[in-house]
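Journal club prep — side note

Before the paper discussion, L.F. wants everyone to see what a predicted structure for a comparable chain looks like in token form. Sequence:
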Amino acid sequence: MAMLNRVHLNGLRAVEAVARLGSLGAAAGELNVSVSAVSQQINRTEKQLARALFERTPAGLVATEFGIVFTARLSAGFRELAQAIALADESSECTLVVSVAPAFASKWLLPRLSRHFARHPNVLLRIDASVRLADLDRSDIDVAIRLGDGKWPGGRAELLLAQEVFPVCAPVIASKLKSIEDLALTCAITDERSMISWESWFEAAGVEPVTFMKGARFTDPMLCLESAIAGHGVMLGWQLLAADALADGRLVAPFGVRAQSGLGYWLVTSASKSESRKVRDFKIWVRQEIEATMAQFRSLESAS
């Protein structure tokens, strides 16, 4: 530990930030100092270590072979420090950063957040709405909720709900559907980026796929859902996306057949970070909310 006395902490912070963010400018922005100050800190740290951490190139700083190993351990050390400091803040006001896809945030999570606020008034929630899952080791994201197969490198995944898909449409469209074959009389509302297909649902229903009338195609499931609510056709929905619209009657599920997609909603955290109390509390809350949603979902099925 005595060796730490010869290296300044601010210099180590500058080195770690440049290695993680990839440039002096980005590191300066994060540390709220000038670019020249970051450069000076790096030079000073290299002198204190008597080792070169970066090569100076026309394209910028590039970590040396030693620098790659050094900064990887340095980043791990700073993460441990951050977690240690977070322990002191758990009883006071703290921030929980949750990464979710925009559709999940808008159609399921947002309408339920008031109950989380009431249960955990000291926790400030910051919702990072993004389709892409950021590097959980290097970002400030505490927990993510993702739809997928449960395989995220470096992530610890816990299944929340297996995804089941089924047709949904506005009541005015459903009134025309006396059988599955009648789907040929409607338009399919398609999400071009979806990982699910109508073929899997027709297979589960035990019928040959029908040819839909030409309809709208979107690159966002939220737009697909709104299009279905507006009566433009039939979309292949799933439990959490369509739950509230089914509950209030804006949508109906005209057929009782549901197909397993092979995907699911997962809670994802960093495998290298210890779990804080705020994350554990959030996990408990999300599971309870999903259980309540599915209970409502089952009651709608029994009523129909």
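L.F.'s comment for the group: Residues 277-303 form the longest helix (27 residues). Keep this in mind when we get to the figures.
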